[in-house]
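The pair is quoted verbatim underneath.

:::
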Amino acid sequence: MGRAAFTGRLLPSGKALQPIDPLILSQSRTSFSFLVLFLALLWRRGLGKLRLPAADLGRMVVLGVLGVAASNYLYYLAIQKTNVATAIILQYTAPVLVLLYMVTRGLPWRS
């Protein structure tokens, strides 16, 4: 679907639409996921259980923007620039690459 969105060929008839930018696609995916998850948690647990200290809320926002949104954006950008296989290999080997980086730098990897 990502590749079809970038090329503009989303319709089965083969009629081309305007291509979607990876930034717009990743932002839409992240926003939609947040909204669904937030509403599900709100319905299941109530507003009182969703309250967080301000410091934790700030960390969550940073993690969401730098972690999830950047990951989605870079995934779709890789699909746009190369192919789906390359993007999937990069996405699923990323944790191993981060661990190798941490070991190489001598950083602690256990909490």
Notes: The mean pLDDT is 80.
